[in-house]
Amino acid sequence: MEFANHANQADSGADIAYTLRSKGIEVITPQPSPSIAQHEGWCFPDSEEGIYSAVTQGATHLWANTIVFSSHPLQTASCLDSYAPTLRVVGQPPGLVEKFDDKMYLNDKLRQQGSFTLPQSWVVNEGDDLNVLLQSIPNYPVVGKPVRGRGSHGVQVCHTPSELKSHIESLFRESPVVLLEEFLSGEEATITVMPPSLDRAEYWSMPPVARFNHDQGIAPYNGTVAVTANSRVVTKEEMRDQSYEEVMRQCEEVASLIKATAPIRIDVRRFRHGSKFAIFDVNMKPNMTGPGRPGREDQASLTAMAATGCGWDYPTLLQNMLHGASTLETFRQYRSPL
């Protein structure tokens, strides 16, 4: 086993490696006995050299605990070619992420399908006449966010045209394209969709996790506020509200449409109190932090919380993800259906 990941996912990478090792699974790490109190030494770099090092040490599975695009060594490294038919990977194919990590592209494709509920949106390109655009937006508040983004970075609720214009201009410093969406003011939830496995032939949703204690209308990034402080699994009584089932089926359709090979997490929110839910953010690589290492007993991720609603503890979630790993060959052959 091996974990390729970026520095900002090192904590969750260490959580995953430690937890699987504690369950008797042989886990190959760069350091033979990394400190359980540190995240260093648990994960190989997600470089060609790092991945090849793990494979030559006997890794049968790679856990891609990071976002992988089409230029990633998993897709391109010729040194992995001979291993591709048997080497298994936990994660999304680079070709899938390349296409669908672009929120504007994916949301537009979902709208074209006609069967998904999404907020009204606008795309702003650098050089567009902002004053004309701002006059065309019928109602405020409006959310401005990067087309590709992590967590709540760059996401802001804007209540006036001038506030929105200022936010768009600040986002242009990072990207030439900005996504605007109508603000969904109702209850927010997040839904993890699991891919097909030997046990279940179809995509299926874990119980929704409700989000609360928003900061200026936006759920804060989990690196700032622990998800246990602002999230909980929706109760069976609450699930009698058919709008949950409706949006869960839509989320399963999204995962099936893009052919996800690992869990995806979809953020949904009601248009207003008591209304139906709309899909507003599809996350290709959910955070997989969880309890296990000493001193991290209170750690969780939205997907780990959802798993508890299925009766799965954190180790069971990870083991089920591991059992669902695809071959590297399958990863590389992925072709976008949209």
UniProtKB/TrEMBL annotation:
The keyword Nucleotide-binding applies. PROSITE patterns: ATP_GRASP. Keywords: ATP-binding, Ligase, Nucleotide-binding. This is ATP-grasp domain-containing protein. Pfam families: Dala_Dala_lig_C. The keyword Cytoplasm does not apply. Belongs to the D-alanine--D-alanine ligase family. One of its GO terms (molecular function) is metal ion binding. The lineage of its organism: Eukaryota, Fungi, Dikarya, Ascomycota, Pezizomycotina. It comes from Penicillium crustosum (Blue mold fungus). It comes from the Eukaryota. Residues 108-323 form the ATP-grasp domain. Signal peptide: none annotated. InterPro entries: ATP-grasp, ATP_grasp_subdomain_1, Dala_Dala_lig_C.
